[in-house]
């Protein structure tokens, strides 16, 4: 196995061969999920706790479904009604959960680095389901699987990531993964939505959609994250769509067989024209949702194998 990590906290520390191993196993789970009977025992006897401090529909549902199909006992914690709301610290929550001996902890949190902090305090495997503006590793992995299935490879492609780059952990994780796999990455968006130091990211930066999309193989649109904005980042949604929303005219500058992606949820008529989003010949947005379950199954399967091996080694030491 190339993937030997204890946790999946981000793409930054994953080697290219570990990424490939996750994608290869996820391919097998795509076929598995299309069967009539979708039940595995890969996580049999294991407990998975989903802790979502930020609201999420598709990511939480995807992780829950992935765990159940792998045979885990899955518990969703209602963090909005949890002791955290009563003043308990994140570390106290981690210690409380750790005393329950879970095997897999899936965490989404609004603060960058919060998931890493939790991982230092528990004895189980931790999966980052998105932390602040930091990373969203399983989203980048499912995007990579979607691209590989559509294009036949995940190397030497020109990928344009468009929109709200500054507030997007999806953009950061994709930028890291695509760079590791030797792709040409372009970031396109208004200067007000570009992070500081963007020139150091090893990619091309554009504030004009037509120029940035020229010859692109993949067009990855991002959600305009209004909940993370505290000022006038854009003049208006109408103006934003006019300049940076994906429509047929802007897409015509990309390659004829370019695919269109969006991590969801979409703001139609703001980030993307509804006709483009629903175009079965160009859009792979629904495929991204399907790949999400398969990728999360693969990640949890591999982490469970590593956890069992670690526990087995410790048990052998005790017996000796």
Explain how this protein is built.
This protein is of the alpha/beta class and 320 residues long. 40% of the residues lie in helices and 14% in strands. It has 11 helices and 9 strands. It has helices spanning 16-33, 58-69, 90-98, 114-119, 137-151, 169-180, 209-213, 237-244, 248-251, 274-277, 285-319, and strands at 47-52, 73-77, 104-109, 125-131, 158-162, 184-188, 204-206, 218-221, 259-261. The chain has a 5-stranded parallel beta sheet. Strands 2-1-3-4 form a 4-stranded parallel beta sheet. Strand 1, helix 2 and strand 2 form a beta-alpha-beta unit. Helix 1 (16-33) packs across helix 5, helix 2 packs across helix 11 (285-319) and helix 5 packs across helix 6 (169-180). The longest helix has 35 residues, at 285-319.
Keywords summarizing the entry:
single chain; 320 residues; alpha/beta; 11 helices
How much β-strand is present in the residues? 5-15%
- Rg is 20 Å
Helical amount among residues, as a percent range?
40-55%
Class from helix and strand fractions:
alpha/beta
Q: How many helices?
A: 11
Shape summary: globular
Order the strands across the largest sheet as they lie in space.
Answer: 7-6-5-8-9
Could you report the average pLDDT, rounded to the nearest whole number? Answer: 92
- Return the string of H and E elements: HEHEHEHEHEHEEHEHHEHH
Point out poorly predicted stretches.
none
Count of β-strands: 9
Termini distance?
Answer: 26 Å
Biggest beta sheet attributes: 5 strands, parallel
């Amino acid at each position: 196995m190339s993937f030997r990590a204890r946790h999946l906290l981000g793409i930054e520390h994953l080697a290219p061969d570990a990424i490939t191993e996750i994608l290869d196993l996820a391919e097998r789970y795509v076929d598995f999920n299309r069967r009539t009977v979708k039940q595995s025992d890969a996580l049999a006897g294991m407990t998975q706790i989903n802790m979502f401090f930020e609201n999420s529909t598709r990511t939480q549902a995807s992780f829950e479904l992935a765990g159940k199909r792998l045979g885990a006992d899955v518990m969703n914690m209602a963090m909005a009604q949890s002791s955290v709301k009563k003043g308990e610290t994140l570390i106290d929550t981690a210690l409380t959960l750790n005393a329950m001996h879970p095997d897999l902890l899936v965490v989404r949190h609004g603060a960058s680095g919060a998931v890493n902090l939790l991982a230092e305090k528990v004895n189980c495997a931790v999966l980052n389901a998105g932390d602040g503006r930091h990373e969203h590793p399983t989203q980048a992995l499912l995007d990579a699987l979607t691209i590989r299935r559509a294009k036949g490879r995940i190397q030497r492609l020109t990928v344009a990531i468009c929109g709200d780059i500054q507030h997007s952990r999806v953009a950061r994780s994709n930028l890291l993964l695509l760079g590791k796999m030797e792709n040409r990455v372009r970031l396109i968006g208004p200067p007000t939505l570009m992070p500081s130091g963007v020139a150091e990211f090893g990619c091309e930066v554009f504030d004009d959609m037509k120029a940035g999309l020229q010859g692109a193989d993949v067009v990855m649109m991002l959600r305009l994250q209004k909940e993370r904005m505290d000022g006038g980042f854009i003049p208006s949604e109408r103006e934003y769509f006019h300049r940076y929303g994906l429509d047929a005219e802007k897409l015509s500058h990309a390659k004829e067989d370019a695919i269109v992606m969006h991590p969801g949820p979409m703001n139609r008529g703001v980030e993307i024209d509804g006709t483009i989003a629903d175009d079965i010949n160009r859009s792979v947005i629904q495929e991204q949702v399907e790949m999400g379950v398969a990728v999360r199954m693969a990640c949890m399967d591999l982490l469970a194998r590593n956890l069992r091996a670690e526990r087995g080694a410790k048990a052998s030491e005790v017996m000796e």
